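Hey all, quick one. A colleague (J.T.) asked me to put the MRU job into the tracker so the inputs and the structure tokens live in one place instead of scattered across chat threads. No bug as far as I know, just bookkeeping. Sequence used:
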Amino acid sequence: VDARPIPAIRWEGGPEGRLLLLDQTKLPSKLEVLEIRDVESLARAIRELAVRGAPAIGVAAAYGGVLALRESPPSPRERLEEALDLLAASRPTAVNLFHALSRLRRRAAALPGEDPATLAAALLDEARTLHREDEDLCASLGRHGATLLEDGMTVLTHCNTGRLATAGVGTALACILTAHREGKRLLVYADETRPLLQGARLTLFELAEAGIEARLLVDGAGPGLLLAGEIQAVFVGADRIAANGDTANKVGTLPLALAASRAGVPFYVVAPSTTLDPSLPDGRSIPIEERDGDEVTSLLGDRVPPGTRARNPAFDVTPADLITALVTEHGICRSPDRDGIKALLDSGR
Ligand code: MRU
């Protein structure tokens, strides 16, 4: 029996192979794997959150190039452009998606000729490289972030930022998992993360896999527990970080940052440099995904009056001055403002 957990994203075979995605909409009750053989199904899987989490969206989309090329006519390059446009329209906030698509575009542009087999081999290689890179980035995030955790701490996290949200061990959750592996005893409060319950369904699943002590919180509970002095640190991921450090993350992150700041509790954002978007001056220019209100009302069923309409912004933006430190693969940036972000980007060049 293979006891290893099913990875969130896997490519099986060569350029004619298939993409296997663990269907996260079914977790934790069902372990179902989606077989993705064309770009339309990949875009749907991203839109419907079968694969989600900023780094995982980028890695999954990277395999879209090789899938696109088996679908000619029209010409392979036109088909590739169409596919990249379709994937770019799948979700707007996580910038990792757009970084991945730019890499495919650059790799294809660097190749001469129109031979689909040559293009497909190169684009599969690019996707595999990006996949491996994300794994390495996660390991570094975990190592750096674990130094911020001490034995006996109670920490709060929001949404899901572990192996299901990335191609590696995770971002914010990687810090917690790494500290746990180093022998630090932690209690983790996981926000349920309305409306799609990434915290309740996915983070608690991952914490149980790792054998880490955890409690589920309703989203509204965190700020009160922070002000009551019951939590020593908040760890969250990010979907896009603007040039001045303003950070978009799953809706419900901002109230935690406000409360942590008021309570004097450190609020850490953990993200690879692939989540930075220096082209945007500040958080006001980050595109915030607005999902269908039915996602909220259908969860509540007949517990809301018939005809109830909901707003459903999927992310909020935390101003940089509420963030104690930004953990990236380059280390811990204790002043994640315009200069701090610039220094981070320069260290990666
Ligand atoms: O809508 P989702 O589930 O894709 O949102 C995910 C988050 O907001 C995560 O916190 C973020 O992507 C950082 S994860 C590694």
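Adding what we noticed when we looked at it: The pocket of MRU is lined by residues 49, 52-55, 94, 159, 161, 165-166, 171, 198, 237-239, 249-250, 314 (CB under 6 Å). The chain has a mean pLDDT of 96.
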